């Protein structure tokens, strides 16, 4: 009898987790699909080590990327924004397990967060979110802020660099510098990449 009760409790728990993830994916317009290993390595190797200040992952999901950012940049304050409760909860556990004191995880809609003190933005979202974020970036980000977007470009902005992955999707990772005042470090990083983009002014 106890086994049967345990089975049903577990079943309900699994269904509840599954339902929550699906519901929030529909609500947010995207599932909490993590950045792939290849993309993560590429992104992390392209980030200038001299990056200072606040680094954000807009939609931090299960924490795969944001925890690695916090490890790579221990001198930076790294912030992950996520609304979906299950991925958020697991990313909190991950943070605790890894004892990442420079990582803050906030359960909130990133469109409601201020980006004015941010020095580097990472995101892996979807086209409609990038359209909305473009306006927010233009209004709030300070000149020199680096924006790295996995797969989806910021519409109308000119990347300083495009990293192309050798995966089946030929994934592109777009690197932007707002108003382009901080491009020297990225230029050096760009030298051995597959696609080199002239470091021209990022379009406003
Ligand atoms: C494709 S996942 C990327 C996860 C993580 N950044 C990574 O690269 O591994 C996108 C995440 O953004 C979250 N998201 C989408 N819109 C959001 C919003 N407005 N506020 C907070 N999180 C959001 C989704 O719930 C999802 O977990």
Summarize the SSE layout with pairings.
Elements: H1 2-28, H2 37-46, E1 54-58, H3 64-72, E2 77-81, H4 85-98, E3 103-106, E4 118-123, H5 127-140, E5 146-150, E6 161-164, E7 172-177, H6 184-190, E8 195-196
Parallel strand pairs: 1-2, 1-4, 2-3, 4-5
Antiparallel strand pairs: 5-7, 6-7, 6-8
The chain binds S-adenosylmethionine (SAM).
The site of S-adenosylmethionine (SAM) has 24 residues, from helix 1 and helix 3.
Within the largest sheet, what's the order of strands?
Answer: 3-2-1-4-5-7-6-8
The helix/strand class is: alpha/beta
Overall mean pLDDT stands at 89
What is the string of SSEs from the N terminus onward? HHEHEHEEHEEEHE
- Cα distance spanning the termini: 66 Å
Concise summary:
The chain has six helices and eight strands; from the N terminus they run H-H-E-H-E-H-E-E-H-E-E-E-H-E.
Label this structure with key terms.
single chain; 204 residues; alpha/beta; Rossmann fold; eight-stranded mixed beta sheet; 6 helices; 8 strands; 40% helix; 18% strand; disordered C terminus; binds S-adenosylmethionine; transmembrane
